[in-house]
């Protein structure tokens, strides 16, 4: 995936796509905190699948002599993702060839979301001495806001355990300014026409995290992604997410100021 992202960054379409999702932890922290074999992008172009497939086929043809990767354009498919979400998403799949190895790739793409604050310019680490991907990327505020919105929108139907893990991990790794996080959440919810609940989102309640199916989904997710940090049960992770986000939600709903800063080791504290 790293080498495909390099080709994207070297193409004329680099400003049309923003890197998001779990790949950002590698950029921000220099390591992956869970196994992920796909990439997530935000696209500012048309959600037309034929147009999207054409763009990605063109990206596949960009060469890089130092990495030896070849992308088979005849394997490329672009399909709509249906997860019960209200907004449009697409998935591009293709196969890369390195020597004799076949490497399946999957890129999930959203369209036209609000990004708060502005996208960051990033350089993604490389495994070998090859040119690095240089892309625009989500700030951590939008990553959290987007995943919170999916939790609220999907409710009990939510099987996206990666969202819980990524928000929980973000709260453990990064500081957040309350005022900026509020803007990011309000912008994402407004863009997707999702109402922020009064009180606790259903995903923060015991009815959600004590649901047997959710426990099974969480345990299966942790087994699959093999996180390199200790991860608690879904109930504990959800409680810690609530400690992180519920004060922000309450401030939005009450239209009160929130001049606080989140520090991973302390929680929310007044800014000095």
TrEMBL record:
Origin: domain of life: Bacteria
Pfam families: AbiEii
Name assigned to this protein: Nucleotidyl transferase AbiEii/AbiGii toxin family protein
Native source organism of the sequence: Pelodictyon luteolum
Organism classification: Bacteria, Pseudomonadati, Chlorobiota, Chlorobiia, Chlorobiales
């Amino acid at each position: 995936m790293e080498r495909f992202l390099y080709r994207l960054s070297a193409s004329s379409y680099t400003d049309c796509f923003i890197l998001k999702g779990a790949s950002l932890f590698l950029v921000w922290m220099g390591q992956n905190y869970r196994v992920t074999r796909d990439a997530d992008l935000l696209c500012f172009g048309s959600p037309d699948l034929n147009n999207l497939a054409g763009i990605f086929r063109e990206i596949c043809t960009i060469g890089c002599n130092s990495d030896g990767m070849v992308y088979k354009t005849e394997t490329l498919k672009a399909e709509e993702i249906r997860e019960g979400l209200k907004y449009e998403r697409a998935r591009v799949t293709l196969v890369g060839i390195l020597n004799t190895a076949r490497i399946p790739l999957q890129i999930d793409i959203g369209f036209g979301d609000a990004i708060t604050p502005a996208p960051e310019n990033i350089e993604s680490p490389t495994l070998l001495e090859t040119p690095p991907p240089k892309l625009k990327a989500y700030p951590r505020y939008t990553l959290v806001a987007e995943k919170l919105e999916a939790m609220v929108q999907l409710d009990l139907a939510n099987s996206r355990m990666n969202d819980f893990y990524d928000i929980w991990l973000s709260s453990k790794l990064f500081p957040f300014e309350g005022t900026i996080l509020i803007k990011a959440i309000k912008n994402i919810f407004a863009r997707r026409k999702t109402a922020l609940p009064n009180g606790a989102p259903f995903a923060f309640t015991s009815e959600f995290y004590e649901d047997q199916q959710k426990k099974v989904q969480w345990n299966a997710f942790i087994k699959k992604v093999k996180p390199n940090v200790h991860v608690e049960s879904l109930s504990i992770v959800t409680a810690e997410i609530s400690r992180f986000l519920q004060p922000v939600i309450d401030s939005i709903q009450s239209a009160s100021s929130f001049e606080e800063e989140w520090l991973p080791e302390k929680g929310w504290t007044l800014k000095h």
